[in-house]
Design goal:
The chain folds into 2 domains: 2-76, OB fold (Dihydrolipoamide Acetyltransferase, E2P), CATH 2.40.50.140; 82-268, Recombination protein O, C-terminal domain (de novo design (two linked rop proteins)). 41% of the residues lie in helices and 22% in strands. It has helices at residues 85-101, 109-124, 129-143, 176-190, 199-203, 211-222, 235-253, 258-267; strands at residues 2-15, 19-26, 31-36, 55-63, 66-76, 164-167, 172-174, 206-209. A hairpin with a 4-residue loop joins strand 6 and strand 7. It starts with a strand and ends with a helix.
Length: 268
Amino acid sequence: MLITAKGLVIRETPVGEFDKMLTVLTAEHGKISVFARGAKRMKSPYFVSTHMFCYSEFVLRKTTDIFYINDCSLIDGFFDLRSTLEGSALASYIADVARDISTENTDETKLLRLTLNCLFAIAKGKKPLPLIKAVFELRAVCYAGFLPRLSGCDVCGRAPLPTYFFDIAAGVFLCEECYHARAKLLEEEAGKINEAESIYAAAHTIVQISPGVFAAVIYALSSPPEKIFSFTLADDAMHDFSALCEKYLLCHLERDFKTLEFYHTIVT
């Protein structure tokens, strides 16, 4: 049986001299493994449309757990994102996260659209990379099931606040008074945790942010997909927003990404 699906190549692995195995993110079928026979040959009809970051329409034949390409055509190759090392590095990190949180036989429409929007923004070069990265991290980790509570102080309920304290592990915001009570408890727990054993432990912190950064978090999570990058922050606020989103994702996915480490070596 043949199926047709539009999907984004988020990983390609060489197989032998001429073939390769693809990981493709689709809306209807989630993350799928696709065998591209002969795709490494320059004369192959699949050569252009099966590269990393290519968004293509696939006609697939399934046997067991693997799909085989019967036909495919390129929709968008996002080739311009490769024009800078920073953009290419960020795109690789985004693909890694998308591959990590996506699952098979699941509707991944939201994640696919988010990933495509981010690659498009990188390719066009009209939005700062730290903004693209932070918005992706925040929305992606929420799609994975870790939506923070945004109603103000999670303990006493006060809102708005002059200063917000974000408990990354709990995914809640606190006022200054409730923060001091929570921080004391975490200090007592910290002595019982071997931080070298877990990224979760390293990220188990409370960070202080301004009302502007709190507003950016709300906007990034509530805006429609076509407007997720339609806001600006001053340099200091952008730094805080970016750090918060990265820590939140790493904490809740409980892992690190080599592509993220490479990105930081380039941009810092």
